[in-house]
Structures are given as structure tokens and as C-alpha cells.
Design goal:
Radius of gyration: 20 Å
CATH superfamily of the largest domain: Medium-chain alcohol dehydrogenases, catalytic domain
CATH class of the largest domain: Alpha Beta
Number of helices: 10
Largest sheet: 7 strands, mixed
CATH architecture of the largest domain: Alpha-Beta Complex
Strand content: 25-35%
CATH topology of the largest domain: Quinone Oxidoreductase, Chain A, domain 1
Shape: globular
Amino acid sequence: MNEEPLPAAMRAMLLDAPHTPLRLAEVPVPQPGPGQVLLRVRACGVCHTDLHIVDGELTRPKLPLILGHQIVGEVVRPGTRFQPGQRVGVPWLGWTDGDCPACRRGQENLCARAKFTGYDLDGGFAEYTVADERYCFPLPDSYRDIEVAPLLCAGLIGYRTYRMAGDQVEALGIYGFGAAAHIIAQVARYRGQRIYAFTRPGDEVAQEFARRHGADWAGDSTVAPPEPLDAALIFAPVGPLVVEALRRVRPGGVVVCGGIHMSDIPSFPYQLLWEERVVRSVANLTRQDGEEFLALAPQVPVKTEVTVFPLEAADEALNRLRSGQLTGAAVLNVMG
């Protein structure tokens, strides 16, 4: 089969240094190495993790860097797993060594040498990208490009956070009702759980958004829900919410922190942790998370609410995310 000719250059949004705007540039189209596929990027989600990189809160990015780790792409140069033209997704976890103690334990998300898409590896704020074919997922046909992009981080990390709450959950609290929360609330509703959504004090827009996506109750993060929680998921990067959540969970309840970055957790009395309450974090994802969630999402079916931006408006998307002006997820429509 003859391979389609490729352009020599592509448009990409480059981060040259933290605290600087992204720069639209013409750069060479990347060439796939062994075990990699070349993808034509169709859409790419915009995530709070991208914001943490731009704002210097994640401190060791490759520079200059092409951000973006919720990539929907079309295979242009295949490896061994995929066919030309096949649509695949690329998540945050982009490479692991497969041989370290964590990988051998089945905890590839904790691989000490892991590389991450849009951080150590160039990502999807560009017209083409390369990816390790081991860490690409076939995508459900029932979703359009812009609809499926948020499932690749907001969905996958949200799902891992949700799973870490355990199986004995009837009353579920969700702190920070954005991209991940509006996806996971639909999963929780599908499974018959009661959902209590917590937002910034007075944020009635976010509270209505939460109710629209299945919350039984929505209110300020400083107030008590109608009943004690079995578990609380924290998606907002705000350390004091851990203390608030501990106040709201029952004895034996679980508080799960779902972000890669969070402000400092203030000290709190041991009484809040006593009675076998648990605080835990989530790091990255595994391929098993991806396979499970991408099979589950069409069954629910999860519906994503997105605001779409062209590639060159990536900075606008990040700024609106930073200021809390978005409900749901932001997605770059790279193919226009």
C-alpha cells in the first residue's frame, strides 16, 4: 500500500517557558520511531494539567513543548497494532519501561521512568503527533471527535479516582464540578448512587450544571450535604477541601484526591481522620483503566459537554479554564 505524502511542516502551539503565552509556530512533522505511530490530530482536549504546566506548578516539562494529552488522532503511519485511517486516543501516560518494580507489580502508573504526553513528550496541540502504540486506545464509534476527547483524561483519571473510592458507596460527594466531575457523575448515576456536588461558594452556574448532570444535591463546599458521605472525590486543586471532605464522610469513608497538583493541605485534628477514614491520591492511569472506561462510557452512555476552540485559540481556552469561565470541558478542534 502506498503511503500518503506528508507535508514537511505543521502548525503547532508551542510553550517556550512557564508563565508565557503559547506561540503558534510552523515546526517539522515528527517522524515515528520504533513502536510508535504517526497520527493526524483531529481534536485535543484542554486540561487543568495543561494549566499547571503553563503556570509553572509542574516544574520539569520538556521545553519548548507542545501541550495536550487528550488526543483524538487518525493513524497515518501505523506500527503493528493499528491500521492506516483508524481513529485512536492518546492519554496522559505516554510511555513506561515495563520492567521496573512498579511495572512488574501491575502499577505502570507509578513507573519511575514514565513519560507523559504533553509534558515529557510533545502532545496534541498540533496538526500531527507521534505516540507509543502501546499507549493508544481504539475509540468508541458512537462519539464524535470533540465529544470523545475529554474521555481521555477527564474521563480516565476521573474513572480511576471513582474506582479508588471502593465498592461500598451509596452517597458520593464530588468537590469541583468541572470536566471530570460531569463525566463521573453520569457513571455514578448509572450505577444507582446518590450524588452530592460541591462548588465554590455562591457558584450557582456550576451548581445548576451539576444538577443537570445527575447530582441529587448541589451546594457550597463549606456546607454539609443532606446525609453523611460514603466517599468524596476531590477534583479541584484546593488542599483545604480535603479537610472539608473529611468532615462530611462517615466512619470508614474514603476521600480521594484526583488531581496531579493540589495546594497544601492544612493541618487538621486527628479526630477527623479517626474511625478508619482514609485519604488517598490518584496518580496517572493504567491501560486497564482506559480499556474499562472506554468500554463503559457508551453503555451509560456518558455525554460530554464541551466548548470548542480552534487550534490557534489554545491560550484563550487555557485562560477561560483558569478563570473558571468554562462548564464541562474545553476541546481544540484541530482539523477545523
